[in-house]
Amino acid sequence: MLLNALIxxxxxxxxxxxxxxxxxxxxxxxxxxxxxxLGILLFVTxxxxxxENNIVKSVLGFAVNLIRSIPFVILLVxxxxxxxxxxxxxxxxxxxxxxxxxxxxxxxxxMVETSLREIEKGVIEAAxxxxxxxxxxxxxxxxxxxxxxxxxxxxxxxxSLVGYSAMAGIVGGGGIGDLAIRFGYYRYDNTxxxxxIVVLIxxxxxxxxxxxxxxxxxxxx
Length: 221
Prior knowledge:
Blueprint: H1 2-44, H2 54-68, H3 72-78, H4 80-87, H5 93-117, H6 121-129, H7 134-145, H8 147-167, H9 175-185, H10 190-218
Subcellular location: Cell membrane
Keywords: Cell membrane, Membrane, Transmembrane, Transmembrane helix, Transport
Family: Belongs to the binding-protein-dependent transport system permease family. CysTW subfamily.
């Protein structure tokens, strides 16, 4: 009975798993593309650094904190008009990727900023002393020294996106969360609920293990 139920669930579970991977991949790429330079900007415009700018730092910091202070479920619903404008729909994994990206960008930006703050000030001061340009300092010093921390940030962001993507199922975003709600919660099917939980746990463990291995490989310090 249980085995038959699991076999019948495989097609839906496979589709939901691929939708989750799709949502997380799109959102993570956008988070890295925008969040990485944003995190660098938050760091280098801080007091005492080579591109100090209190106005830029304050404005960016406020925007990042504003988005991060909004619970994802509320953000998901609040961004539905923007989602419809960008994707033409408010349901499905592509539509859910809009809210996921908006939530992930400031989160990853703060992770990058935190990683950069772990770099010893003396390293930056030495680069300035030898006449390195701001771009050279960012490229050859900051990003080089902070690589393990940034990889850890990507890992944590990816895991957070997996959790967020499950919540996206509330508004028909697809993925494993949608499967758990439609088949597990609404139909009181414990087999579906337990299976989706196990899949999510396994996925998170794989991401965490892979992230830690990559971080060790890129750590040349």
